[in-house]
Amino acid sequence: MSAAVPFEKPIVELEQKIEELAGLSDPALAEEIARLRGQLVELRRKIYSRLDPWQITQVARHPRRPYTLDYIEGLMEGWQELHGDRRFADDRSLLAGFAFFKGRPVAVIGHQKGRQTRQKIERNFGMPRPEGYRKALRVMQLAEKFGRPIIAFVDTPGAYPGLDAEERGQAEAIATNLREMARLRVPVVVTVTGEGGSGGALAIAVGNRINMLEFAIYSVISPEGCASILWRDAGKAEEMARALKLTARDLKELDVIDEVIEEPPGGAHSDAQSAISGLGQVLERQLGELATLGPEELVEQRYERFRRMGRFSEVL
Amino acid sequence: MAWFHKAKKPRARSDGRRSHIPEGLWIKCQGCGEVIYRKEVIRRAWICPKCSYHFHLSAAQRLEALLDDGHYDAFDASLASIDPLKFRDKKAYRDRLRDYQSRTGLGDAVICAEARLGGHPIVICAMEYAFMGGSMGSVVGEKITRAAERALAARVPLIVISTSGGARMQEGALSLMQMAKISAALARLHEAGVPFISILADPTTGGVTASYAMLGDVNIAEPGALIGFAGPRVIEQTIHQKLPPGFQRAEFLLEHGMVDMVVDRGTMRKTLIELLELLWFGPRYDEEPVA
Ligand SMILES: [Zn+2]
User: Fold this and answer.
1) Beta strands B80-81; B110-117: pairing state
2) A110, A70 in Cβ contact below 8 A?
3) Chain B closest CA to A49's CA: distance in Å?
4) Interface mutation target, options B177, B236, B259, chain A, most CBs of A under 10 Å
5) For a surface tag, which of A122, A216, A280, B287 has the fewest beta carbons within 10 Å of its beta carbon?
6) If you ran DSSP here, which 8-state letter would residue B283 be given?
7) Quick check: B212 and A175 CB within 8 A?
8) Does residue B291 register a pLDDT over 90?
9) Weakest mean pLDDT among A34-43, A270-279, B7-16
């Protein structure tokens, strides 16, 4: 196995060494393996405690990072996926449905990426078309109808920039979601788990609470896109990743998000189980907080949350 | 017609206009390439007499042309960006802002105002493409949100004329969030039953299209305007083929049901007044028509 991201090379090498030794099933090696495991934890902690924004971007896109279905499987019971926007098609890059979370029925919305080539294509690399957003809205409005809170997982490079998507109103679909999510009379808790790619992310992210995993990103444009527009040079992506302030900690500081959810040392993919249960605890607490608010208060709180977004001066 | 007033109206800052349309007796049409007598173009509301090309107008020109007596009272004109990310590419964002401010005479890429249209009070916003491609950052987001809140408080119609490349990269996610902020304010206007008319001028793309520009009770496009979410270049790179002619143009959007009408500038004012009467100022079903 090779490293999916360059700075993980020493981690992957150490992992391979441990695996090799463990494969020998020699009791005499037990102590050495334990020592190396300890070293691995330390190495992960060391590397991951000083990632720069470009490295964080790579972690956010890590192919082994938990995806929406992993969170559903790890946190929910009785998942019933609902399909289709009742207008045109079912979009496989955006999941919508209901499940039990800590014994309560909830609606779940989330982008879904694929891991193998075939899945990636089936999931369109996590890039929804208008019908995906319309399905999501349909299910969110069902949640409202039946008083179910909504849990959204955001992980997309962006809305699909294709001819068919434009033809069927990508812009209108996103815009309508923004307006209608603002009106939902049930709690909406949003977590950016991987890539929060522009309008395609925001279209399911108008929440009462907005979380980001520690190594997720959320941005108006990808660093590569930004670099090619402003510099006409994709090689400037690293620099633009820094400039865009797209990390969880930056966005917490800018008051764009409410909570940064810590990942295991080594990133969510290094220990998916604890990453998933860590998020589960936050979601449970937040839904508990929001359960004290009535429908009007929820709408009001969400309005105020977004109303204060932005930084400007009153004088020129 | 109000189109005639604007030539007479003295404006303190005409340099904003110059950036769009060069001064001089003759003017070259960017649509057909013909050289046309400038006064003739002005007389036709900045539409080419040969090919109907709609010249790009400044926000102030649009407002003057559209509104009663060409008059409007701008509000929140002093709102300005504070460069929250300390953003720098080839040039510092802060310096870019200063350049555009002196070039356009505006604080940022939108004018918001109270005005009258056909005698009726309205709140209107006009985006300024000459200010960083009409891009939307915190200031544009805040001003349009305040305009929507003002329209709601006064229960008067809101009109927004969009022309924008989308959300402003230099303010990162803060720009992105303006899409949700404005849309939430429009949700309130929607619930209160106060009309919002969106006019989409050339070009309207990205996060502006994917928020307020598409949320009009009535969406009106100017002829030939490029309107879409993704830009044509990005789409071509994605699908690895050339786009068909007319793709993402106003007429294409009309055909695909995304806008209600395509209206040229010569009839825009009349159309808006009629729509406002039909939707709002005219009598409700339970009121007597005024003779
Ligand atoms: Zn012409």
Assistant:
1) unpaired
2) no
3) 23
4) B177
5) B287
6) P
7) yes
8) no
9) B7-16
CA geometry: angle at B251 spanning B247 and B253, to 5°? 70
pLDDT higher than 80, residue B20: no
Query: Average pLDDT, stretch A128-153?
Result: 98
Beta-strand relationship, A94-101 and A104-111: antiparallel
Q: Is B189 on the interface with A (CB under 8 A)?
A: no
For A305, the token pair is 């949350």
A174-206 residue pLDDT tens:
999 999 999 999 999 999 999 999 999 999 999
Q: Is the confidence at residue B261, as pLDDT, over 70?
A: yes
B266 in helix, strand or coil?
Answer: helix
| Across B187-205, average pLDDT | 98
Secondary structure letter of residue B284 according to DSSP: P
Question: What is the overall mean pLDDT for chain A?
Answer: 96
Q: What is the DSSP string of B152-191?
A: HHHT--EEEEEEESSB-GGGHHHHHHHHHHHHHHHHHHHH
Calculate mean pLDDT across residues A60-67: 97
**Percent of residues in chain A assigned helix, strand, coil, to nearest 5:** 50, 15, 30
Query: Given a cut of 90, is residue A2 above it in pLDDT?
Result: no
One-letter amino acid for residue B154 of the chain: A
Annotated domain spans of chain B: 58-281
Please state which CATH number belongs to domain B58-281: 3.90.226.10
Q: Is the pLDDT of residue B250 over 60?
A: yes
Say if residues A217 and A195 touch (Cβ distance below 8 Å).
Answer: yes
> How many Å lie between the alpha carbon of B69 and the closest alpha carbon of chain A?
28
How far CA A31 is from CA of A14, A19, A21, A28, B49, in Å, comes to 16, 14, 11, 7, 88
**What type of residue sits at position A236?**
K
Q: Following CA atoms B146, B151, B153, B154 in sequence, which dihedral angle do they give, to the nearest 10 degrees?
A: 140
Looking only at the bridges linking them, the beta strands covering A76-81 and A94-101 are antiparallel
The predicted model scores a pTM of 0.94
- What is the structure's pLDDT at A1? 55
Question: How many A-B residue pairs are in contact by the CB < 8 A criterion?
Answer: 201
pLDDT at B243 over 60: yes
Q: How far apart are CA B55 and CA B225, in angstroms?
A: 11
Residues of B in contact with A178 (CB under 8 A): 179-180, 183-184, 210-211
Q: Which residues in chain A have Cβ-Cβ distances shorter than 8 Å to B82?
A: 311-313
Within 10 angstroms of residue A184's Cβ, the number of other Cβ atoms is: 23
pLDDT higher than 90, residue B83: yes
